[in-house]
Amino acid sequence: MKRSVLRLTGLATAALVMAGGLAACSSGGGSGDSDTLRVTLVNHVWTDIIKKKIPEFEKQTGIKVEVAQFGEDQLSDQYNVKLNAGTDDIDVMMYRPLQEGKLFAKNGYMADLTDKVASNADWNWSDFQEGPVNSTTYDGKVVGVPIITEQEVLYYRKDLLKAAGLEVPKTMDDLLAAAEKIKNDNPGVAGFVARTGKSAAVTQFSSFLYSYGGDFTDADGNASINTPEAKAAYATYGKLIHDFGPANVSTDMSWSEAMAIFTQGGAAFYTEADSLYKNATDPSNSKVSDTVGFAPLPAGPAGSKAYNVPSWALGVNESSSHQDNAWKFIEWATSQDMTLEIQQAGVPGARTSVWDDPDGISTYPTDLAAAIAASTKTGVGHDRPLVIKVPEAREIVGEPIVVAITGGDSAASADSANKAFQTLLDDENK
């Protein structure tokens, strides 16, 4: 079987990822012991919490756990080398379904967990949200369990809306009108800000695309970013920034630059991942912390369809000789009680029951929790094209975004981009 090499790139959850280099810890047991489990994790708040709990798992099961923990680039290097070689040194693997999930599954790195997720009614696979589950499923087989999720929501300034006599926008037309009025009434303040970089903007644009009734590919897997729905989404995203965005806005902003404009009082509305909300509500970082509100993404013609994605998941190495014990670990780490505890610590999980539990949202702003709840019910399980060559695909489908932001012919750009994207898809399907 042909093995591919990958390089990981960042997600909005970079705000939650802990900086650091290679680290490792051992909870006992040798790698040759059949009761020893090798778990590979990334530096992340989720990982920090799980590591502290591992002695409980060991006591309950008699299984010794060895944790190998890496920064994102180092994790990429480990997977490049070891999975490509068919190693059995990894049992449980923390991975990103939207970035490398398709590659891993297609190359046979991921064990089929379909029977295992259905084997324990108390653990309750049906409790996991549909969007994230779709992204941890490949060719009808479950290959991962989502552990961390993200949704796109609308950040807004309550003070500016009140001064303008406006309600929180519920539709894209409402958002366009409100952004125009606030910019006209408040010199120096943009009506709207968002990511503008060709690749970086793709994830946040995706929710506009879905809400207008489009997607990156159609039901047959063909490129579909030049449909009337897609062209309308490109035009709206571009208009919001070109007409009502910051003056002289650059076309290379990722979340950090767009967030800075919003938190320094430079914009009324901002669409972004919910996982970054503390950047806007922390008084030490945000000049508008006391007036920030959150709402579901305004609805387009197809409704409000923000992405609801798993930024990280747990899977089992197909080459592992300890797959049953690996599943026991995943089952324990993704239980309802564990998900609740980790979500209370600020890491959004994928279980519906935890979001429905008042304790599960007790540490979140009330309006943000409500916005997330709405997004999880209608959310789409991907925020970029589901392909192997993710970076290349993002550059292609992101080109019409930049054209729209700069006031160009985004419809013509979408036609050109669709041809290039179809070529990429054809190459991958050879």
From TrEMBL:
Taxonomic superkingdom: Bacteria
Keyword Signal appears in the UniProt entry: yes
Signal peptide: 1-23
Pfam families found in the cross-reference section: SBP_bac_1 (PF01547)
SUPFAM superfamilies associated with the record: Periplasmic binding protein-like II
InterPro entries recorded: Bact_solute-bd_prot1 (IPR050490), SBP (IPR006059)
Entry keyword annotation includes Signal: yes
Keywords assigned by UniProt, alphabetized: Signal
PANTHER family on file: ARABINOSE-BINDING PROTEIN-RELATED (PTHR43649), DIACETYLCHITOBIOSE BINDING PROTEIN DASA (PTHR43649:SF12)
Protein name per UniProt: Sugar ABC transporter substrate-binding protein
